[in-house]
């Protein structure tokens, strides 16, 4: 009995699928109607809007107009009328199925009725999500298929070998399925069998096993080849990619290296060439013979160098040119084609002025020349740029005043000129189209233009670091309802708090160094604020009560350091707070334990205040806090003993308080700790050897406390492997110097780091700082160079000889053993300390002569050997000629210092004669 209705056909089909054998399954294709097959395929999936998002990875627009096509399918209608279905007008076979961006969710199994459509010629399932499932081998049975698109559809795993059976295929798109893999045998069969293939798109497919030379086997009839982000690597030889028919070629975001293949720049039909984010090295050729049809040339983020060749400015069809982030030098040539719409030459080393022809291109919509070495003023007059949306010229050396045409561009949306040397005033804008305006870090003066108050689309406004006088008032800002980012830092700002207004979308506000004396009252309504910086001002008095409600559920960054704030630390209910800086104020009272309600607090800096009371235990219980800086307050009591094993501390600075008692051994749980500064307290106990296992510790300062006793041998095989600053001065340590600790200070023997780019300790918004004795002065290092290395054991009771092994610590900048009871000779090995800048061995009982090897230390600027029992002659020459008598006073039986100076002067005078 036949199936009389489609609903009954579906029931029959379900029963058949559950009871059939594979042979009967394949032979049944002709007996199942295509409408029934489609209907069951639809019922095997669910509809989910999130399966067809508008953007892939937040950058590639995919399903901008998605809708559930199958939702309109009705059983009692001919399936040839269904949305997305195409039938042959004669045979009524289903020959086309386009269900792209149709919200489909669920796996496509091998027994899916989708494969009961043997006459399909085109199949498009892009922009759905098939449950992170494998591509079924059954796709290889669509013998008539010419176009297959499975892109952006949550497929993973290996591309099946059976895909190579689709011998009629003209277009294959499997791109943007992050997790797909094509192996070499499958790749070879695809190239060999699919002889009709003209379009191949495999973006973000893992092709790491495929060698570049296999690309030479592609048909010369190819029109589109897109292998973006496919883990391809190796060199692109000239002969590999001569595809005479190719129009679009995208090999970006791979690991291709070596010279740029010149063959690619001579392809006669090429319209789009994209080689972004590879490792290509070489200049562009001086001459090319093709590229008459080239619309898009994008070579961003490579290592291309040399000057820009003249042909680059004469391509007749060029619409988009992107050479961002390379190493091009020289000047920008004169552009001739009027077709250019997009130009990005930023992050190169281009110099000279901006060519006038570039500013007269009628179709240009984006011009980006950031981070070059361009000079000169902008021209006073131009005739083009009527369609310009984006003008970004930041971080150059442009100067002069801002020309009037800059404020008359009718379509301008983004104007970025920060980091130049522009002077004069900001003109009045004619258009209201601006959304992003950044004129920071120039030398502009005057007030901000009144026309800004009309920019109801303005999102980002930055005028930082100029000489502007800015009034924060209702008339100027009340209409800026879309303003998200506001930076007026390093200008002179006045606040009118008599009239309130709201900036409902404001998330980022920087008024640092603006000389304001009170909190802006419009902050009361800034409920969405994420970032607030009011540091380096003269805000005085106590915190207003309403401050705790500013961005109550959103604020993650609050910086109030270097003001004149007084009174107790406020009760802040910022549950989302991650960074809090209130240092260098006049706060008093205790640190409230409520501060720990901000469970995501990452940096807490309350240093240089007058805070008292005990250190809240909840702070050391935190598993998130990384930087704790409470130095220079009046905290007392003991350090809590319960540092969590899962803590995240990187920097703990409690210097300059009145903390007492022993150092808690639970500090050894701080496995990520890099800086520990407990100087100038009343902490007692023996040397904290249990800190030596902290692999990342770079700075250990326990100076000016009450530590005592001998420093024994290390307890681990590699103690303090990364320590660079060790200051245990002004304590009560005694016994011999700890030779074995000096032996294992690996970071202090390493001088390689001094050859790299200068770096500072800290991360993100926070820079580490400490106080150290340097060249005889006790100073604050507001930033710590990663190569800064010093040892200070002064003002203790160490005795015995100085270990020779100290001469291996070649990265040392400073060494201070003064004010101890050291005896014996100065080791000649100290002459190996080639980076040493200061050496203080004064006030000991050292004997013998000053080793002549010390004269070979090239950077030694401060030397103090006074108050010892040294004898003999003072070495002469090099740095020793710069030291005065104070370096040697109060020693035994030295040649008279003044006599030595006189002899030296006579020698110099005789030499001149």
UniProtKB/TrEMBL annotation:
Residues 68-88 form the Leucine-rich repeat-containing N-terminal plant-type domain. InterPro entries: Leu-rich_rpt, Leu-rich_rpt_typical-subtyp, LRR_dom_sf, LRR_N_plant-typ, RLP23-like. Residues 1-26 form the signal peptide. GO terms for cellular component: plasma membrane. Keywords: Cell membrane, Glycoprotein, Leucine-rich repeat, Membrane, Receptor, Repeat, Signal, Transmembrane, Transmembrane helix. It is found in: Cell membrane. It is a single-pass type I membrane protein. Belongs to the RLP family. This is Leucine-rich repeat-containing N-terminal plant-type domain-containing protein. It comes from Castanea mollissima. The lineage of its organism: Eukaryota, Viridiplantae, Streptophyta, Embryophyta, Tracheophyta.
